[in-house]
Amino acid sequence: MSKQETIVRCRGLTIGYGREVVLRGVDLDVPRGAFLPFVGPNGAGKTTLLRAILGLLRPLDGTIETPFDHAPPGYVPQQKAVDPLYPLSAEQIALMGLYPRLGWWRKPSAADRKLLDTIFDQLALTPHRRKTYGELSGGTKQKALIARAFLSGAEVFIMDEPTSELDEPSEIEVLHHLARLSREEGKTVLLACHALDHVAALAEHACLVNHGRLRLAPVNDLRPVGSPIGNRQSEIRSEEGGT
Amino acid sequence: MRTATCLMLAVATLATTQAGTLRVVTTTTDLKSLVELVGGDRVEVTAVAQGNQDPHHIEAKPSYILQARRADLWVRAGLDLEIGWEPIILEGSRNRRVQVGTQGHLDASEGIEPLNVRGGLAHPIAGDIHPRGNPHYWVDPWNGRLVAKAIADRLAKLAPGDAEFLAGRLKEFQRRLDEAMFGPEAVAKLGGIKLWDTQRGGQLDALLAEHKLPVGGWAGKMRPFRGAKIVTYHRSWVYFARRFALEVAAELEPKPGVPPSPAHLRDVMSKVQAGKLRALLVEPFYDLRAPNLVAERTGIKVLVVTLSVGGQEGAGDYLALITNIVDKLSAALKGDTP
Amino acid sequence: MFHDIADLFAMFPEAVIAGAVIATVCACLGVFVILKRVVFIGITLAQVAAAGVAAAMVLGLSPFLGAAALTLATVTVLAAPFETQRIPRDAVLGAIFVLAAGGSILIVAKSGFGLTEVKSVLYGDLILTQRGDLAVILATLLPALLALVLFWRPIVYTFADREAARVLGIRVFVWELAYFYILGIVVSAASKVGGALLVFAYLVVPPSAALLVTRRLVVAAILSASIALLCTLVGLYLAFRFDQPTNHVIAVATFASLLLAAIARLVASIPRRRARTRR
Q1: Which of A165, B151, B213, C120 could form a disulfide with A139 if both were Cys (CB 3.0 to 4.6 A apart)?
Q2: Partner-chain residue, chosen from C119, C124, C128, that has the shortest CB–CB distance to B293
Q3: Which ipTM score applies to this complex?
Q4: Do B133 and B116 meet the contact criterion of CB atoms below 8 Å apart?
């Protein structure tokens, strides 16, 4: 990857739960403005790695450097994260993204409201803005969480399978928007996904997570493997994948 | 062979009770004190309910059953005071000697004249409902005298060899009680029984005036307050009130065990203010919030005084119990801080 | 009727005010009790407070200190994140309740003293509120309500999406602990005056009624407080008018409100169901 300011750095990172190691010896430098997918099968450790980078999981070994202490990222968890029992509307979920700036007492400004309207329009969320989160479909829930991240205006977006529930047109639109943010505004995007599919055309590099290891490789070195419907995986074309 | 064994066991038991101490279990500490005062060193007494506990509601513990199992005599207050827990303990003890109806079971209420007799059936769930009469009778010293005699008689039946000793102890207790009630001078001159008969007939003042004797003891202390109206928390003071000519004008607990409703509190407070009632009596194991609220609104004095031996400092035995009540109540009615 | 209401206010002003404050504050906090699925926390904390009183009596300390210390220790345990644990928070609540219920009786069983104070924490009676009680209620519950209103946002975010809240820089453990501390103090103070049954009713029933009727969290809190307040005033009046124990009438009144809310929701859903059937 090109030598730009590194915004996320992992050195000798080993992560897991209790005694169970999920990923070992991860060395990773993510430059500012990168659009970096993390690809791998279920249970490979993509979510675990993203949570560790976010500071939600303490590493078993190694270090992680991020600027998130003073500049929180825009985070899109898997849509199960929000408790559906809470009577919060899609709009209220999205407004959570403003907390780092507003704190516990400031009200959103007119500019914030206008930005919210724009994001909701882009994500076709406007008809659903007053519905409670629990009432939304899986895809609409994900859009609400994406809207939260976009509204935050963060420099880094960390997204865990953000388009898994979206229909294809919506998925493509969201991914293209993220790529645009990366390319034109210098936003850094780290996103976990099952397969490269729609992401391959948008990224230069990807991280492959499998068998307890992470490998960073150019996207062109990756090849989709033919397999039954619903089970698409990618693997490194060459034996010598690396930065 | 079996007959011979039973005979031997009976003789052995008789021998034990004749030669050694009698193990007595009482349901309340007041009865325990009376048994001790009458039985002296011939008895070993334990009480189930402690002085600081509400005798209506006792949580049965294994030790109570063990005590009952070893007992030679079980003494209860009766009138359904212990209906919630006595049957469980006696049944669990499997001690045939102390079951209801046997010589080893004494209902101390049998010789007294109960007040508040309602009729109907009592049930453990009803808790404090006593259709056969109000069970808090021991705070009338006359009833204490009657109960002491009943205890002495029963102990003598179980330990005939100690009959003379027990009769002497009873006489001594009756003398002390009579002197505490009327004063030593009057007792020495007229004798306790005559004084009691006269007092129960309402002619005590006249008799003592005739013999130019002072009204001493408890009777003397409570004399100035005859006719005084008091408020009580629970309906446990009726016998004491009758003996010393007090009037229980209101009770805070409208139905025993049921918290007072707003309307009932209002009625009590109205009565207190209208009748200028001066003292509200409550036992130490009751919640003081209702009494304190009434006191805050009306200025009535709340008097926390025990009806049970050991329920308060100064109520170490039966005689001290009555003295404690008389002293505190007379001070409160006089206007001094008790 | 107006004569009775006037009498009630004249004779028991402290009870009316204390009841109103306890109802309002508990019902607001209760919205989160329902949403966090810790419904039995009210009863558990009241029992823990009673155990604290029992322990304090035996150790010769102030009963209030004993109640406060044990209650705060319990809420500290309950504030830990249970989502990744093997047993849910409710199970821990149940275990603490069992320990406190058995323990408080055991502690006083030997001595016999202190049982009245222990029972008074559990079986308090709103109608018996005195000036001193009202002062304690106002001094503890009003600041608690103010704190909930002021810190509404971080508390809601922490509860609704704990991980996202953490990422946003919210100190989730601090806010979780803050809520449970507020709840613990409110339950301790309110139980002493109103009794555990009434506090439990306020924490659970009006919030449930409100959540049935509205899909907005702020509206649910306001509605919950309003329902609880109405039930308290109606309950006080009915207890006065028909000579019944106050706490129990209010508790039944809160259930009636839940029933009405359920019926209202059912009736409101009929046109939607008919529309669906026609399609």
Answers
A1: A165
A2: C128
A3: 0.86
A4: yes
